[in-house]
Amino acid sequence: MKGEWGEHCGIFGVYGHPEAANLTYLGLYALQHRGQESAGIVSSDTQTLHSYRNMGLVSEIFTRDVLKRLPGRSAIGHVRYSTAGSSDLKNAQPFTAHYTRGELAIAHNGNLVNAHILRDELEAHGSLFQSSMDTEIIVHLIALSNENNLAGRAVRALKQVEGAYCLLFLSENEMIAVRDPHGFRPLVLGRQKNAYLVASETCAFDLIGGEFEREIEPGEMVVVNEDGLHSFYPFTPVTPSHCVFEFVYFARPDSFIFGRNVYAVRRELGVQLAREHPADADIVIPTPDSGFSAAIGYGHEATIPIELGLIRNHYVGRTFIEPRQSIRHFGVKIKLNPVKELTKGKSVAVVDDSIVRATTSRKIIKMIRRAGAELIHVRISSPPITHPCFFGIDTPMRSELIASSHSIEEINRYITSDTLGYLSLEGLKRCVGDENGSFCYACFSGGYPIKFPTRMGDSQLRLFEDR
Amino acid sequence: MKGEWGEHCGIFGVYGHPEAANLTYLGLYALQHRGQESAGIVSSDTQTLHSYRNMGLVSEIFTRDVLKRLPGRSAIGHVRYSTAGSSDLKNAQPFTAHYTRGELAIAHNGNLVNAHILRDELEAHGSLFQSSMDTEIIVHLIALSNENNLAGRAVRALKQVEGAYCLLFLSENEMIAVRDPHGFRPLVLGRQKNAYLVASETCAFDLIGGEFEREIEPGEMVVVNEDGLHSFYPFTPVTPSHCVFEFVYFARPDSFIFGRNVYAVRRELGVQLAREHPADADIVIPTPDSGFSAAIGYGHEATIPIELGLIRNHYVGRTFIEPRQSIRHFGVKIKLNPVKELTKGKSVAVVDDSIVRATTSRKIIKMIRRAGAELIHVRISSPPITHPCFFGIDTPMRSELIASSHSIEEINRYITSDTLGYLSLEGLKRCVGDENGSFCYACFSGGYPIKFPTRMGDSQLRLFEDR
Amino acid sequence: MKGEWGEHCGIFGVYGHPEAANLTYLGLYALQHRGQESAGIVSSDTQTLHSYRNMGLVSEIFTRDVLKRLPGRSAIGHVRYSTAGSSDLKNAQPFTAHYTRGELAIAHNGNLVNAHILRDELEAHGSLFQSSMDTEIIVHLIALSNENNLAGRAVRALKQVEGAYCLLFLSENEMIAVRDPHGFRPLVLGRQKNAYLVASETCAFDLIGGEFEREIEPGEMVVVNEDGLHSFYPFTPVTPSHCVFEFVYFARPDSFIFGRNVYAVRRELGVQLAREHPADADIVIPTPDSGFSAAIGYGHEATIPIELGLIRNHYVGRTFIEPRQSIRHFGVKIKLNPVKELTKGKSVAVVDDSIVRATTSRKIIKMIRRAGAELIHVRISSPPITHPCFFGIDTPMRSELIASSHSIEEINRYITSDTLGYLSLEGLKRCVGDENGSFCYACFSGGYPIKFPTRMGDSQLRLFEDR
Amino acid sequence: MKGEWGEHCGIFGVYGHPEAANLTYLGLYALQHRGQESAGIVSSDTQTLHSYRNMGLVSEIFTRDVLKRLPGRSAIGHVRYSTAGSSDLKNAQPFTAHYTRGELAIAHNGNLVNAHILRDELEAHGSLFQSSMDTEIIVHLIALSNENNLAGRAVRALKQVEGAYCLLFLSENEMIAVRDPHGFRPLVLGRQKNAYLVASETCAFDLIGGEFEREIEPGEMVVVNEDGLHSFYPFTPVTPSHCVFEFVYFARPDSFIFGRNVYAVRRELGVQLAREHPADADIVIPTPDSGFSAAIGYGHEATIPIELGLIRNHYVGRTFIEPRQSIRHFGVKIKLNPVKELTKGKSVAVVDDSIVRATTSRKIIKMIRRAGAELIHVRISSPPITHPCFFGIDTPMRSELIASSHSIEEINRYITSDTLGYLSLEGLKRCVGDENGSFCYACFSGGYPIKFPTRMGDSQLRLFEDR
């Protein structure tokens, strides 16, 4: 069911700027790679919230007219991706609601592992649900809380949820940012003159000329209102579990997250990959654009020249009409085409960041082979993905992950490469500099940092005990 | 005036395929880099022509419903770009008209240098014009011709025009491709099973699984109908003048044109550039994506590591809303952001294919400088552009070309780089292997291969003398 | 505030028909006069509810594609009008929600007088509100009820609300129709073969070939499920208060409501008006189309010929662009134009159903005067409107009702007519045959049939006492 | 073939007003009944023409933004209707073109009978055609003319065409209105302050507060430029042939055309109809809205009370989705519903303006019968339509006109009425006051006032003899 599975998302917020909605629009634009399905912005003019959400890209949704109707000096925004078919405007964010204390908007990146249990309890209490999003649960919990201020109510609500969350709350006169105690997803704090900025990645600050101040810490709550910025640590501390896949694939190379620049880490993965799995190749070819950084590192370490042998079509549309007559490798050709002069008669090392279902990899290898390559060595800058993610990245079911049921050699045969090398888990850990075990490698190892609650637990009893 | 200036364009045609419009759609999609403003397809079901043209990208314009309304086994298509402001659906192609022999569609890449004279004469004769396109002139000349078949009428019409043209004609039962005697623009011939294909570049064949047969020769006319393919050379031969800028910038790297693969040529330009203008740099950074191939060659020859230090935003929309408060380097940041960790404290060689107005280059250099680079060496893989193009590439007026009025050292100061090196014209000639003087370098040298006719010529008298 | 004020609305429901959504679409189309701002349909396929709501007219919103996505054998629909400016998709109906027992959709015609009190109580309990509609209150009350079935929960919820309501509920396997004990708004029951139909007016049955069975009684609840139709009377009976304005203006002339045909009643109002206020006129002119029926009666009784002297433009668009230069009577001319040949030099009796703000009447009279009429006698087929409606018709604030602060003679002077005659309240009562005082005349008399609750009442205490 | 058949159209022009496009928009809005398929406006700012045309209603096509892009003090506009299926934006008007003298726009109401011959000749001469409209022929003829000014060229062109035309020409600095010598279609001249107005009907002047000056005479050409208004009569005079169907059905009742008010004529048709075909009926029911005026006259003369027994749905959309299950009389019910209380057990006289195919009449009669009427007398306020129109009204082929092949008694049986009476041709002539034979009754009599030219005529020789 939708809602159990995490989604890719990006969030952005600004407090104290005369063009709050415009900056949020630009911030979301820079975070577009984190979600291309829907986007939304909610602004506050201190009296009331103004909201606009729609399906599509940020640059399509937010026209000048739409942005004019989002007045005020504070705003939060959200971009979202979810698997095809389940897309629905109802599930676009930020989510907004009226409750006894006024209006509230919330933007959420991550997902909760005890969502079902909480939803059942809330419905039993008489709560009505409008969407299938985890996020709505948090709003109900806040509405049910008796604390005096929004921060207190949010803390009380969040103490009941488990999972991954970076959250932005906006009320008429306050913006609150929270990162879960495990720090699964990145969240960064910035300034632009007197305005405070919060974003999923630092690249959002770069676009609007903002200064990166620091990361928001795991378990930290940052409250921004007319009295300035206040930081709290209301949750019981735990060992962090940063998502290593943000480094491997998800974040933008120019961003700085989890204490490192993404490009630098990704390049090092390529270097380490070359050490673990050298290849007797004439050229190194990256898969655009996700394999670029690792391929640079690989080629440099292996002293094999890099060539951009796969040309990407930059005008890929949302829907694509395929002719009835099947064309060989059609699906992947829409996006990529090999430069035959480079591959003809060569031994080629193809570098990519990861393999999920392996169907696309197979098409690419076959296409390169048809373009004349004699030997194809596939090098992957992360370990085999064997387990799904429950903390905010939209991986497929376990049965669809090829590495969950096939050996590396079997995958090599399936994708028709000559040799296949994956980066080792140890190599990955070394590259990200994880000395304290503060990263989550669950998708590679199955070692989930949070236990999944069952409905038999006693959380059911606790929820309303103090009402 | 609009119409005097050339436009970027791409053309595609297919004859003898049950999914002619679908293939044309895909072919145009692969040629989208040659024009993003408007697109159109005309198909023939042997009885009548069916047409659809609109503003926008190929993938947006052609829905399944639109393609269904383009039946038949032959079709031609066109993508077009023109300078902002003058865009108009009237000027979208293919152009269609009824005349005494039936219906005719025409798709044109290039532009004519005696368009004004011909238009004045035609209007004096009583011809009505619907558009401001050169292309319409050719159709009027065909309508006025008395020859017995379309090929004959097209030859008679084209003998009166001077300039650059790759043309596709479609009548109810024939497709005709013509390349002007100078061969300014590329035009290639292919097959897909029993169907004949024509395209501006070979990358269009790759996408649809077609086989590249050969280039259509300068001055060649290819007629395809139910009797098969026939080739003619109806024009007086001249020395070819292939547009060298197709190699430098315009064509796609995976295409094969003018007897060479574009990527290979472009990479060699980088190699030659490194020889002519070495740089004492720690890293080589290409400007995405146009500088990629040359930067690879440059880095390789100079043995300086390549790093992808400028990250491109892949979701750039058509219109972009800028905040009222000016943000430093905003315009270029929408598209590019530097990876600070790479540039900080480094000596950097930035490789690009060309400089036109230099305003974007200046923004990029300043942005890299702000990202911490100590020394910035700009290397350009073509000579300074000093003259406008009149043969189908949309360059600005001469006064706007910075190299037409500034020395290289002045440009270096303007764009704020530490050193600036352009590839020499001789180097460029050597790389493209031009031993017979068969390329046009007019934008670098001012040596235009066609004399521009004045209204005082006697062509005015000749036009209708035999009617 | 929005939500306190009633809106014009129409509702339609069908149970047990293979084309439930299609029939609902047609039913709403026939009820379009009851609300032109937004429309929605929810259908049930017995497993889940399917919903589509949008701003606009029924014929614009529901395309073939949209209707295909509303499968199932039962459906309810809603058309809605509200004052300009407050329109918002959030407030479109039917309203849908998930709660502990499953899914629920509700369509509501009318409005509640204790909405604020209930909303405050519900928010204090922790309920979140998505809209500003009264209707959402009823859904929250149902979600909080512990009764075993939907009918029981709906009764429990409705016992807490006061005001005017005709409601349609749709769950996965049941449709429920309820009319409030006062019977303010009409609600009728019909059959089409084996399917049950419910609608605001009988004209909806005519369009789809359905048979009118009977009116749903004040205070009656009709439950339709796979066991057939069941009728209940769960509320304490009160004297009915049918809205007399449905007869005067709101319902369609071809409908049968409150035991009478609307045209027949409206024509009788004209006959009675002629008796009370004869006019020495050459011709009778109705205001299209609302004055048609009464004018027929007036002309017949007064033996003055009727002429259709005001021509209506049938293509009135939603937004209209007025030239900057003011044109005399522009606003009303967009809709109406007099036939000068009829009015020139004549004494004219203009018959309309009612006067609200009098600004439009003034414009019409001035326009007719300019068209040459010598004497203009205005005759209104209802008494002066002196009080706003709180039971589901969107009248303006009391201060905007001209008759609340001006005498008939003052109104006559303001609208520039020569004489002005209103039907008497007694005449109105006689025409609708109200022997038992079972109609609401509050807009004419201020005698509201329900006392408005204050927040100090004890309903606050009762709401959750049994939880 | 399309183009041979006339279309319904309306035209409007203004010269010398700062809001020329806005007034034209309003003028077209008032003329919307003359064509609902497409609309267009062309304005002139004295330097260049600005144009916008689209499919749809005037109020949908012309937004504030569109109108802003139509600057200048003169403008012409057009509304158009054509038979379903042949609609195409290419055939929307005004038609615009560039020729040797500059730019030209043209709006045309009517159609030509020698269009085919002229088109063949023009194509033989080398002219290209963009559309299938007669109107384009006139523009080509103008472009081929050698006269010194636009008026001269237009006269020369129009001397070659035969048929019905009211034309508006707009060049950069002139507006020209022409009405064909037979005066088939109406065309009226007006003023608004210093601006000159031209329209198909006077109702267009009423909306914008313009004054009706006079009709433009058959064969008159009115030239308006900065020197003021000039009138010419360049054509050989003939006996006029005003289209009597404009009075019967087509024009708006509030308009003044052919020297009379339309409502007054239409009412007289009803009076005469009552004299010729009295009915023993309890009530007279008009078919909305086309039967209104005649029914008033009929009821008055016959002293039978009028009742508005058919209620019209005012929200009819363009496309309508019919349920798969056939509903009785569905097609007509979408638009009309009888008031059963009026018809039950009654003898009813139904008055309509005309019968074309009779399928709709049959549905209406059956619907009224089902609503309980005992006797139904159909009365038609014009004679049987036996012949198609070739002068600008879009009647169906002769074989589809029921009266071309059926007697009145047969039609009576087909539509299932009890009695059927048509107005006599003599009665019609008397009502329109046609003492000099200055009307066209061809659709009733087959007496076409223009001989249709064959291709064997000598017009072919004359066309270019003087070139």
Topology summary:
The structure is a homotetramer of 467-residue chains.
Chain A: E1 8-15, H1 20-30, E2 38-44, E3 49-55, H2 58-61, H3 64-68, E4 74-81, E5 95-99, E6 102-109, H4 115-124, H5 134-144, H6 150-158, E7 166-171, E8 174-179, E9 188-192, E10 195-199, H7 203-207, E11 211-215, E12 221-225, E13 228-232, E14 242-243, H8 244-250, E15 256-257, E16 260-261, H9 262-276, E17 283-286, H10 292-302, E18 310-312, H11 330-333, E19 336-338, H12 340-343, E20 347-352, H13 359-370, E21 375-380, H14 408-415, E22 419-422, H15 425-432, E23 439-440, H16 442-445, H17 459-462
Parallel strand pairs in A: 14-23, 17-20, 20-21, 21-22
Antiparallel strand pairs in A: 1-4, 1-10, 2-3, 2-4, 5-6, 6-7, 7-8, 8-12, 9-10, 9-11, 12-13, 15-16, 18-19
Helix pairs in contact in A: 4-5, 5-6, 8-9, 9-10, 9-15
Give your account of this protein's structure:
By secondary structure, the first copy, chain A, is α+β, with helices and mostly antiparallel strands. Helices cover 28% and strands 24% of the residues of chain A. Chain A contains 17 helices and 23 strands. The first copy, chain A, has helices at residues 20-30, 58-61, 64-68, 115-124, 134-144, 150-158, 203-207, 244-250, 262-276, 292-302, 330-333, 340-343, 359-370, 408-415, 425-432, 442-445, 459-462, and strands at residues 8-15, 38-44, 49-55, 74-81, 95-99, 102-109, 166-171, 174-179, 188-192, 195-199, 211-215, 221-225, 228-232, 242-243, 256-257, 260-261, 283-286, 310-312, 336-338, 347-352, 375-380, 419-422, 439-440. In chain A, the strands form six sheets. In chain A, strands 3-2-4-1-10-9-11 form a seven-stranded antiparallel β-sheet. In chain A, strands 5-6-7-8-12-13 form a six-stranded antiparallel β-sheet, with helices on one face. A four-stranded parallel β-sheet of chain A has the order 17-20-21-22, sandwiched between helices. In chain A, helix 8 crosses helix 9 and helix 9 packs across helix 10 (292-302). The longest helix of chain A is centred in the middle third of the chain and has 15 residues, at 262-276. The radius of gyration of chain A is 23 Å and the shape is globular. The two termini of chain A are 31 Å apart. The model of chain A is unreliable at 1-6, 83-87 and 456-467 (pLDDT under 50). At the A-B interface, helix 1, helix 2, helix 7, helix 9 and helix 10 of A face helix 1, helix 2, helix 7, helix 9 and helix 10 of B.
